[in-house]
Amino acid sequence: MLLIGLTGSIATGKSTVSNILSRPPHFLPIIDADLLARKVVQPGTSGYAAILSHFLPTTPDLLQPSPPAGNNGDRANLKGQPLNRAALGHRVFGDSEESKHDREVLNGIIHPAVRREMLKAVLYYYVRGHWAVVLDIPLLYESGLDLICGVVMVVAVRNPHVQLARLRARDPHLSPKEAEERVAAQYDVRLKARRAEKAGDAGIVVWNDGAKDTLEKEIEKIIIEIKRRRPNWWAWLLVLTPLGAFIALWNVLRALWRKKEWEHAQRQEKLKL
């Protein structure tokens, strides 16, 4: 089974691409890291408890008001009040050292739990015989999960102003400064695109500066090309023989080599500055 790593940055259109891939004619299963990240911090989970332990003493508005009684409200109250994601966002987004530290703490709580849930989902779709699964992960490169993907698809925009405009249209409550901070807090999507381009057949860049119908046609071409490189009979051969384990290991080693080459190139560029 092919793992397609889907990534991008905030407001570049990654969710739109994910939605296109899940619908006809593609019907690809989507494992959405953002949805899993919400699941693992629901009241009653160990992630929820860890967030409260670190952030609640210094963030009075970290929790939303308790839901009303009735309609399972009593059960929700027993587990705890939902997190105020806006208040948590104010803590972790920004350039200050405190914000960076809080962001690292939050990622340290959420990422391991998300990985466990992701592994369960991958095994589920593998057993059901799907030819490919999409791992929709905003921090794919940052988390190192690109190493397990046969193909990495980066959804990017060439113009940073397009990205900021889309973000503020989607989240109108954000001030211009807050929008810039949220974009700056993530790995530059144009660097992600360059990294994917340097990966050869293992990297695909979807430039999404235009209209949705243009994007849909581009995605269709990409899936046709991926299927051409990896026909279904080859996927079943890998499942039914030990060759599958060898190929998986080989792909991880190739991804590690590409990562080292990319990091070396980035260091060389910084030395030139």
Task: Give a description of the structure.
With 273 residues, the chain is an alpha/beta fold. 60% of the residues lie in helices and 9% in strands. The protein has helices spanning 14-22, 33-39, 46-55, 73-79, 85-92, 97-127, 140-143, 160-170, 176-184, 189-198, 212-229, 232-240, 243-272; strands at residues 2-7, 30-32, 132-136, 151-156, 203-207. The protein has a 5-stranded parallel β-sheet, sandwiched between helices. The termini are far apart. The model has no long low-confidence stretch (mean pLDDT 87).
Helix content range: 55-70%
Radius of gyration: 20 Å
Largest sheet: 5 strands, parallel
- Give the strand order, joined by hyphens, for the main sheet: 2-3-1-4-5
Mean pLDDT, to the nearest integer, reads 87
- Approximately what portion of the residues adopt beta-strand conformation? 5-15%
Q: How many distinct beta strands? A: 5
What order do the SSEs take from the amino end to the carboxyl end, as H and E?
EHEHHHHHEHEHHHEHHH
Judged by helices, strands and strand pairing, the structural class is alpha/beta
Describe the global form.
globular
What's the helix count? 13
- The end-to-end span amounts to 43 Å
Low-confidence stretches: none
